[in-house]
Design a protein that fits this description.
The structure is a homodimer of 356-residue chains. Chain A has 356 residues and is of the alpha/beta class. The first copy, chain A, has 14 helices and 10 strands. The first copy, chain A, has 2 domains: 170 residues, 2-Layer Sandwich (Nucleotidyltransferase, domain 5); 148 residues, ATPase, nucleotide binding domain (Nucleotidyltransferase, domain 5). The N terminus of chain A is likely disordered. Chains A and B meet through β8, α6, α8 and α11 of A and β8, α6, α8 and α11 of B. Chains A, B: Keywords: Kinase, Transferase.
Chain lengths: 356, 356
Amino acid sequence: MKNSDLNADKVYENGGIGGGCDDDVVLGVDGGTTSTVCVCMPLLPLISSNQNLPNPLPILARAVAGSSNHNSVGESASKDTLEKVMSEALSKSGSNWSAVRAVCLGVSGVNHPTDQDRIIHWLRDIFPSHVKLYVHNDALAALASGTMGKLHGCVLIAGTGTISYGFSKDGREARSAGAGPVLGDWGSGYGIAAQALTAVVRAHDGRGPQTALTDCILKALSLSSPDELIGWTYADPSWARIAALVPDVVSCAESGDQIAHKILVDAVQELALSVKAVVQRLSLCGADGNGSFPVVMVGGVLEANKSWDIGKEVINCIHKLYPGAYPVRPEVEPAVGAALLAWNFLVKESERHHNS
Amino acid sequence: MKNSDLNADKVYENGGIGGGCDDDVVLGVDGGTTSTVCVCMPLLPLISSNQNLPNPLPILARAVAGSSNHNSVGESASKDTLEKVMSEALSKSGSNWSAVRAVCLGVSGVNHPTDQDRIIHWLRDIFPSHVKLYVHNDALAALASGTMGKLHGCVLIAGTGTISYGFSKDGREARSAGAGPVLGDWGSGYGIAAQALTAVVRAHDGRGPQTALTDCILKALSLSSPDELIGWTYADPSWARIAALVPDVVSCAESGDQIAHKILVDAVQELALSVKAVVQRLSLCGADGNGSFPVVMVGGVLEANKSWDIGKEVINCIHKLYPGAYPVRPEVEPAVGAALLAWNFLVKESERHHNS
């Protein structure tokens, strides 16, 4: 009998991992700029982190709240939102704070160790010291939603914003982009749409060639002249409002507009470059460059299933560089990925404990 | 005796132009995004708009207030600011509303005929119908500050933002850029600095080459890592705060940093392209392409007198395209340009009147 099988019995006996109760739970939180999702899962009765997960996953409850990005809403509101969404998920599960064994928070806007420390500090007011806490950028939850809780590979998120995040098997991590539109996230939905708006203005004032984007975007926004784009753009600084024009840019490219086509080609290059930077720094492709690793693809820009498919083009670019890269489109939401991560940390902790 | 000489007597007799009083004045307003300046000038006792202006110009008073860009502060505050600054300039001049014969307002954010109409509408509550009102973008005041009140040529403004504006002798006008950073004003101070910040982030995360901009900008902002740039950038959305980094970019380019050099070269191309678009649309260079016209150069980005001189490079680019273009660095401020325009409108009106 292998060591892990012995552990398995122990896990089953306790209805979970090493010394817990039947009712013990883990929480996974995906804290985005527009909304925050928390899921509550029971401790999965599994032997080790290498075994297959049950299908469907036993989700006890799901709760949704507003933004928890401290850059957007401030620290106090971010804290309140996170606490509220966890409390609601526990309550819906018929559970409570004392049943929590591990929490994984992937929160947008966590870009620096001081951000992590601050959040862990106030989480400790809620959770006693035996509860495992893991706080990271929301990209972590997105990666885990594709790898089902494994911290290995690269995630590329391209929605309103864009970021690449990667983890190596030996625990190193790296990110690329995710710095917002001012700092050059040009492959993001906002970046693509801003380039398209710019092309319209430049065509109008004589700095650039004419483009079908003009009619298409003016129609989409119910405006009568490119002059009105200035007022429209600055009337509301929301990046999502501008990023919502991406489908119009894709339509124009599909209709053969060369300016729209070029904007999308450039975005594809930017997104692939962002993944490349992470893969290189972590040597995810191994010494020979052919090593296998997942690239988790998340976000509206990559999910368009049109004839001009940005996600497919990005994968093609990445494949040319790294033949062992395989794309993954997640089947669960990032909050579930975060909960699986929380559970995986417990499993590893338990394995370490029983092997020591 | 020429017709214009006859008019001249008439002008002198009335202490101004056609039928005014000795105490009549004109107002010139330069309404910017950061401040608004109003100057009050007496009616200049001149024969026609072709005669030399007195030197120094007889400025009765100057008043300063905050922003009057309706996009920044809202319409009501913009109106209050404009009214207040005019009232203060009149009061300092020992004058009053009823002495005003003409007003020229160059207001930032006036991008559309509806903007002009709105401002003229409420100006009519203050000024009776015989007072000449002229409302335009603030670029007009900047042009007039270089041409001393003549509406001919092209002005290139490159400070925090950038815009090109031109007027042909037959009264046509055209603009280029001036649409803000989202809409591609890449030659602006904000555009240059944002490219530099982007280069630092890209070097840091592996998407771009290393650059001296990293040390230079982190030092300027008292930050310890490029990761902190994200928080710094989004802590305050003011464009001027980012544009203030332009001298650091210029320093790096002067020290031989190729990334900084490339950013400035690109900005020069953008600024020259913006002037070119206006010149082409208005045929300012004449049928043979060699016609003479002024290019008024305004704003911090063009005024740097360093070994890497953006303004000089822009002029070189423009000269290659249009040998007859001659650069003008204004010797008076834009509000004075606006006042001279107001006076010029009266002269022309008077000339039309006496010639009819």
